[in-house]
Amino acid sequence: MVPYIVWYKTVISPEYSLIRIPLPSFPFLNSMNLNIEKLQDSLCKSLCAEVKLSRQNGHITMQTPFYFADGDAYQIYLKEMPGGILRVTDRGHTFMHLSYETDTAKLREGTRGRLFEQIKAEFDLFEANGEIYTDTSADDLSKTLFRFGQGLTKMTDLSFLNRFRTESTFYDDLEERLTKLVSEEKIQRNYFYPKIENSGDYPVDYFIQGKNSPLFLFGISGKDKARLTTIILERLLRAGADFDSLLVFADQQTIPKADLARLSNAGGEMVASLDAEADLSRKIKRKILI
């Protein structure tokens, strides 16, 4: 008798108990006599059907199974180069597509820029004036095409860091916003208040010269930084420090309510996210001499 394989997933029921649901079975998984050759042939035919070449306006267009998040297909072209080389290129379409919702210049700056360079190196990609391309041979075209698509996908993912910031990009963005609003000579980074014992354990992200009192600005990337900032602010208050504080969040809604409440008691004004640029500008300019 041939064993019958049933796959399950575990989910939470409406009564908050764990239950196991059988998933649909697949004939080739339930058979001990899996025909690898037929399966490979089927996969090859399916994958080949997803890739089509056509000549349009003097260019070879490559239709592939790669799509942007909005459903538009990647624009990928093939160009003959001297010496039998084939160039796979997007002819600048990827950056043009991303520019509709993203400042593509930021993909070359800070943490995004470093990630962008890593992606190019990982997938053997080159970029010139917004055009992404790579060179290959006819024999390696299929492998190169799929690596090219993977590389473009990773590049487009970088644009989402504008909306879903990781900790590292949040601080890059905060620095950028701040230096546009405040002159460099008025900013001191990683400031330590000298009247606190072991002051090196309680850094202030930014000390900014204020109208009456200095402005201590903290970037809050997540709950851990929120808790640390609460401790720092409480130590500053106990030491009698004279200052105003401004707390800038990557996303205030991600901070647990209890942590946010404690931080609110210790801190001053808040900016819910870096997307609230007008709010950030208004609250900074109110505290400092421009």
The second-level CATH architecture of the largest domain is: 3-Layer(aba) Sandwich
So what's the CATH class of the largest domain?
Answer: Alpha Beta
Helical residues, percent: 25-40%
| Envelope shape | elongated
CA gyration radius, whole angstroms: 27 Å
Overall structural domain count:
2
Oligomer: single chain
The main sheet orders its strands as 3-4-5-6-8-7
Quickly count the helices: 9
Class by alpha and beta content: alpha+beta
Average pLDDT over all residues: 82
Distance between the termini: 83 Å
In CATH, the topology of the largest domain is named Trna Endonuclease, Chain: A, domain 1
Low-confidence stretches: 1-21
Give an overview of the whole structure.
- The longest helix has 19 residues, at 141-159.
- This protein has two domains: 50-162, no CATH class; 167-285, Trna Endonuclease, Chain: A, domain 1.
- The protein has nine helices and 13 strands.
- It is α+β, with helices and mostly antiparallel strands and 290 residues long.
- It has helices at residues 27-30, 36-49, 93-98, 110-122, 141-159, 167-181, 223-238, 257-266, 277-285, and strands at residues 8-12, 18-22, 52-56, 59-63, 76-81, 85-89, 126-128, 131-136, 187-191, 204-208, 215-220, 244-249, 269-271.
- Strand 5 and strand 6 (85-89) form a beta hairpin.
- It starts with 7 loop residues before the first strand and ends in a 5-residue tail after the last helix.
Task: Give the SSE map.
Blueprint: E1 8-12, E2 18-22, H1 27-30, H2 36-49, E3 52-56, E4 59-63, E5 76-81, E6 85-89, H3 93-98, H4 110-122, E7 126-128, E8 131-136, H5 141-159, H6 167-181, E9 187-191, E10 204-208, E11 215-220, H7 223-238, E12 244-249, H8 257-266, E13 269-271, H9 277-285
Parallel strand pairs: 11-12, 12-13
Antiparallel strand pairs: 1-2, 3-4, 4-5, 5-6, 6-8, 7-8, 9-10, 10-11
